[in-house]
Amino acid sequence: MMSKKIAVVVTDLVEDIEFTSPKDAYVEAGHTVETISYKKGSIEGKQGASFDIDKTIDDVKASDYDALLIPGGFSPDLLRADEEGRFGQFTKQFVEAGKPVFAICHGPQLLIDTDLLEGKKLTSFISVRKDLENAGANVVDESVVVDSNIVTSRTPDDLEDFNRESLALL
């Protein structure tokens, strides 16, 4: 198996386990994970853990990576608030290139900003589903959904399925 380089877009109030569980699974499988946010330094998770940031969104391009992870919590909503839309554009480049994108819980919110959800089968945390439908997605209530290169899940309870399907796509 070839080692892949995975980008994680994340900021404060990320759901800790939705970041650490997939990251640990990817690293254990031999992949490299880099965290990307507004600024270097560290961020604070929803449960209070501190996470180091490797690069800023201005330092990276999608072509540097093989896959993208979007953990949930309040982080995706805060990333969408970027006035220049850089995180949405970054995500869009992965979808357009057919690269794997893994989004759990509130993570699919960032997918809305790609304007590429028409006809895609997705799932998410319940409060995000209507927004995904409005963006043209076919939304279902399942622990994990794989639509071509996009893997989505609903909650931390789905992490086992989410990690399994994400690793299978890598």
Automatic annotation (TrEMBL):
GO terms for molecular function: peptidase activity. Pfam families: DJ-1_PfpI. One of its GO terms (biological process) is proteolysis. Coiled coil: none annotated. Signal peptide: none annotated. CDD domains: GATase1_PfpI_like. Gene3D superfamilies: 3.40.50.880. Residues 4-167 form the DJ-1/PfpI domain. It comes from the Bacteria. Keywords: Hydrolase, Protease. InterPro entries: C56_PfpI-like, Class_I_gatase-like, DJ-1/PfpI. Belongs to the peptidase C56 family. PANTHER family: DJ-1 PROTEIN, DJ-1_THIJ_PFPI FAMILY PROTEIN. This is Protease I. It comes from Abyssicoccus albus.
